Amino acid sequence: MNRNPKPKLAVWKFASCDGCQLSLLDCEDELLAVAGAVNVANFPEASRAVVAGPYDLSLVEGSITTPHDAERIHKIRRASKCLVTIGACATAGGIQALRNFKDVKQFTSIVYARPDYIETLNKSTPVADHVSVDFELRGCPINKRQLVEVINAFLHGSKPNTPRHSVCVECKVRGTVCVMVARGVPCLGPVTQAGCGAICPSYARGCYGYFGPKETPNTASLSGRWTHLGAQPDDLVRAFRSFNAYAEPFRKESEAHEK
Amino acid sequence: MKSAPLAVKRSDKAVLQAEDLDMLIQNLRKRGHQVIGPTRREGAIVYEELASAQNLPAGWTDEQDGGTYRLKRRTDGALFGYAVGPHSWKEFVHPPAQRLYRARRNGKQVEFLPETPPAAKCAFLGVRACELNAIAIQDRVFLGGPVVDPGYQSRRQQLFLIAVNCTVAGGTCFCASMNTGPKAASGYDVALTEVMESGRHYFMTEAGTDRGAEVLSQLPLQRATSRQEQIAADMVSQTARRMARQMDTTGIEELFYRNYEHPRWDDVAKRCLTCANCTLVCPTCFCTTVEDTADLTGQHAERWRKWDSCFTLDFSYIAGGSVRSSSRARYRQWLTHKLATWMDQFGTSGCVGCGRCITWCPAAIDLTEEVRALREGGPARGAAPTGKETKP
Question: Which residue from A100, A206, B38, B56 has the highest number of Cβ atoms inside 10 Å of its Cβ?
Fold first, then answer.
């Protein structure tokens, strides 16, 4: 493959906290290698210098929450050969998708002095609801090693090693004792996708599900076990309704426990 | 009162005072072994490197049931008064992740750098009878076929195994049903039975190999009296009668082969989380996946082998998708392999009755219950099998 010129990388932001795109700057050891392998053409968090499109690889952070963004994402898609969404906002709608369970007009009327200035969509939705996405990288925030892996896979034309199995596998591989079995701590690990490295259980806390639903998640069975451990329906609604609230398996499970 | 070293041969029974157990650990350390054994961490008894007998969980036991494990204080200072915990020895001989090779680009050539076998030699202290059987099963998997696994072989050859006969049956144990315990029958260098009686605390020792006898002969042992031998033997046979669970293994292969379409598989699929915990805590499950990684420059690559599980979709992924996409198919595959097709493949059951998959299943699925349900479900309600799935 002709590597000259280097592939052009662009980073785009929608409704989000910037944490995921900062993971790229947080790569530290790999940062120079990343900068050496790609031409950072559009990344306002890193540089004001912007190179015009089209781009070989676009990393998109954030969810679609405004009519303007719903148009902008199409322009980005048209200017990008490969479009990868990063983080829970871009892949599931993020914490701001909590609005999807309520009437957003009620929120704007309470929060803003002039709600009529606010032009917002009723729902916060993942990028894949609007344009075709080549790869979704999960997490709130994403794991920087997984980000490097995805960029690496893009550069070498391979499939990224980002397994879709449970967090439990990561606990077992690192030797963490199961908090649910040994401590009776309710944990979302059995229905959550791996990728974080099973951080919370290693601090004796249950998984919060920040990497979203794993492949074939059996949320109903897990809810049954949570109930057995003393969780109330409200606890279940809150547990499934966080940063990946609008990811379908989690959304359905939280709705099942809502009065 | 200290005793002088006593020369023992294979199968000799001798008594080691509990306070002298540390000498066994220190002896093995001097011989260059990393001594791995039970210790208390994160609310459980796990296997880790021991610096001394002080690291053993003296005075602790566990209460186990489906999906639950709790440590409890014992009323005595027993060092091995508990059943098996979340870890198994396999992580030391069949590690969760191991690099198979590195490669680097040299102009237009690719140079492969093979991995050198690991140097550390381990001694396992506190291997239960079920676990000795599990090690023997993994030996057949990794060493018994036409292709020998070099990493496993190198770790395994250097192992020194100190068995501990069980004097406590855990809440999910069923080794008596599987004929794998609670007494260590073979495969150990040294076997210990912990005895606490009339204020005395000692180990009944027995060497299983010449090197085991050699290590024991350096310890302050006393000849065992026939009364002491009897007490130790009684404690172990009592454990066999206290098994919390049973599994009827009569005709178990045929039971599975005629029940591929049993409705119980739908029932268990409703509960199964497909989280893979059962396979990862299982001391015999051995499946792995292979991951290739390259660095950003494309100049260096590595191939890693990592634990995998038949409960993941990727495990059965072939062109066109995953063969076992439903959790019903995945649970059925696991249990059928473990208890039936394993026999066709390796000549023994894949289950040693340790109960880990019951205790550490977050959904409390109990394979002994599942087998009972298959049996009690009467004749097969589905079609007769057309062939056996043999992929592990």
Answer: B38
pTM: 0.94
Residue B136 CB contacts under 8 Å (≥ 6 apart), including other chains: B187
Phi, psi of B81 (to 5 degrees): -90, 50
Residues 6+ apart with CB under 8 A from B85: A177, B38, B44, B45, B46, B47, B62, B69
Contact A169 B307 (CB under 8 A): yes
Nearest 10 degrees: CA dihedral of A63, A67, A73, A78? 160
Q: Which of B291, B297, B359 sits opposite A161 (nearest CB)?
A: B291
Give the residue numbers spanning the domain of A94: 8-156
| Side-chain half-sphere exposure of B122, counting CA atoms within 13 A | 23
Give the model confidence (pLDDT) of A90-140 as tens digits.
Answer: 999 999 999 999 999 999 999 999 999 999 999 999 999 999 999 999 999
Number of A/B CB contacts below 8 angstroms equals 139
Query: How many CB atoms sit inside 10 A of residue B19's CB?
Result: 12
Asked whether residue A17 falls in the same domain as residue A55, the answer is yes
Q: How many domains does chain A have?
A: 2
CA atoms of A184 and A48, how far apart (whole Å): 50
Contact B164, B192 (CB under 8 A): yes
Look up the domain containing B326 and give its range: 252-376
* Chain B residues within 8 A of A172 when measuring between CB atoms: 96, 276-277, 280-281, 307
Is B95 inside a domain boundary? yes
Same domain for A191 and A84: no
Q: Do residues A124 and A102 make contact, with C-beta atoms less than 8 angstroms apart?
A: no
